[in-house]
User: Fold this.
Amino acid sequence: MNELLTAENLDYRDRAREVAEKFVRPLAAELDREARYPWEIIEKLKEYRLMGEWIPKEYGGGQGGVLNLCLIVEELSRACGGVGVAYAVNALGSFPIIFGGTEEQKSRWLPDIATGKRLISFGLSEPTAGSDAASLKTRAEKRGDCYVLNGDKKWNTNGGAAEIYTIFCVTDPERGTRGISAIIAEKGSPGFEIGRKEDLMGIRCVSVHNLHFRDCSIPAANLLGGKEGIGFALAMQTLDNARPGVAAQAVGLAQGALDLALEYARGREQFGQPIVSFQGLQFMLADMATQVEAARQLVYYSARLLDAGAKNVTKVAAMAKVFATDTAMKVTTDAVQLFGGYGYCRDYPIEKYMRDAKITQIYEGTNQIQRLVIARNLIKESASMEPKLVEKREPTTVG
Ligand code: CAA
Assistant:
């Protein structure tokens, strides 16, 4: 519904759409085939002043907020889901600095991220700590003016491309989640190695790496907020703000698949007529379009709540993520179905949408974790209400 977008929203959306259509779409298949990082697109995003949209103005960013971030990610993902996340993950990586960094830390790292001079990534997951993020083991021990890091990070999106890494680590193993801290590691620090690159099913142009820390000494000044123990809550707050972005990636993928499916169905003839004239397929297209629009509105709603500074957005951010990403999987699968045998081959770009969509149900918290987060919040809200709806009635007799 364009009518509900402001002039500023439309400006961001249109600039992103131009980058997507002029530069991303023509390259998408090649980037996917070669699993090559989209550096040329990053250059265009800088040129179109889209890098650092979410970063406060005083640090050189656009201060555009979460809705504008979602609009950009949606447009990029409509042309290539990999490019969408290569961009969005910079917001994920920098939110902990924005929310928890000291003034000195913000001034030190945010300006470079805002201009796109240096990319940033988010290091929470580990080989044995995925959904159970609190079980992470990377250890940071204070020695003099430094923290010495030991451990391994897994599935680090933008791992090979970033130069700044927000790393979640244990500073006090006795304190559970309150013993987790966030520290900034910079590429090139001795003992910090960028490990194996994953061979991915989809979003193949993004570099996803293992990270290894072996007696890696990081200045204590890099500890976010200058305080130990705030890392887990910072990670959760970051995910609340970033999940609408992944959801927007899913909306873009679903919309992109629907665009292709519609065009194909109008052109493809069987039984002497375009297949779009068959009611069976019309119903399918109608459902796809309805689901995409419902997902989009939930994503924009969650983003607007975050931009308005609403409290307790955890539940709605998780709802947007789960609904939009399940929609993307369904709509891209239906789009492949509509292309028939051609859809299953690499002759057409549609199969890539289905491969790209799958990861959106997995990363930034699996959809099972989103449902757990939604349910926990529902139960908490219900427990805070005075019980007055469920009243046991006198048994009635029939007849
Ligand atoms: N905001 C602030 N604080 C929060 C919070 C939130 N949304 N949610 C929880 N916390 C706080 C709690 O208040 C609690 O603090 P106290 O100890 O002070 O009370 C603390 O965090 C622990 O909370 P829980 O007991 O709820 O923690 P848990 O271990 O039971 O469950 C979880 C947490 C929701 C399952 C969490 O582990 C989770 O979100 N898991 C999924 C991890 C995830 O999303 N990973 C994505 C990796 S990033 C990625 O994928 C990026 C990419 O590649 C593109």
